[in-house]
Design brief:
41% of the residues lie in helices and 21% in strands. It is built from seven helices and four strands, in the order E-H-H-E-H-H-E-H-H-E-H. It has helices at 11-15, 19-29, 43-49, 59-66, 81-89, 102-106, 121-131; strands at residues 2-9, 32-39, 71-79, 115-117.
C-alpha cells in the first residue's frame, strides 16, 4: 500500500554536503520524491512541526539548531514509506544507530542527527500539511 511521509535533511547534513547521498539512499530503496524544497526553517513552522516538544527544556536548543542554515524538506511516496524511512534513518541517537543506516554511517550526535522522518501515518499527514500545504 502506497504511503507518503515527510523527510527533513537537517542543516548539519546540508552543511556537510550529505544531501545527495541521503536522497539517493531513499531513491535506491524505491521511494519516489513527490515534493522537494530547500528552505530556511522559520521558528513558527518549527514550533508547529515540533508542537509536542515545545514545552520541553531542550526544545529551544533544537529550534536554534534547525535554524542554523538551510534544510531540505521533501515528501516521499512508496510502499510502507513511513517505516522504510525510519529504518533507513536509524536510531535517533547517531552514537547508537546501526552501521548501514544514515545516522549510523554519518552521525555521532543525538541532536545533530542529520534527518527527520515522520514516525507514523498520522504524523506524516500532519507534517506534510505544515511543510507542503499544497501537496
Amino acid at each position: 500500500m502506497s504511503e507518503r511521509t515527510l523527510v527533513l535533511i537537517k542543516p548539519d547534513a546540508v552543511q556537510r554536503g550529505l544531501a545527495g547521498e541521503i536522497l539517493s539512499r531513499y531513491e535506491r530503496k524505491g521511494l519516489r520524491i513527490v515534493a522537494l524544497e530547500q528552505r530556511n526553517a522559520e521558528g513558527s513552522v518549527l514550533d508547529e512541526h515540533y508542537a509536542e516538544h515545545v514545552e520541553k527544556p531542550w526544545y529551544h536548543e533544537l529550534r536554534d539548531f534547525m535554524q542554523t542554515g538551510p534544510l531540505l524538506a521533501f515528501v516521499l511516496e512508496g510502499d510502507s514509506a513511513v517505516s522504510i524511512v525510519r529504518a533507513l534513518n536509524g536510531a535517533t541517537d547517531g552514537r547508537k544507530a546501526e552501521p548501514g543506516t544514515i545516522r549510523g554511517d554519518f552521525s555521532i550526535s543525538n541532536q545533530a542527527n542529520l534527518v527527520h522522518g515522520s514516525d507514523s501515518l498520522e504524523s506524516a499527514e500532519r507534517e506534510i500539511g505544515i511543510w507542503f500545504p499544497e501537496a
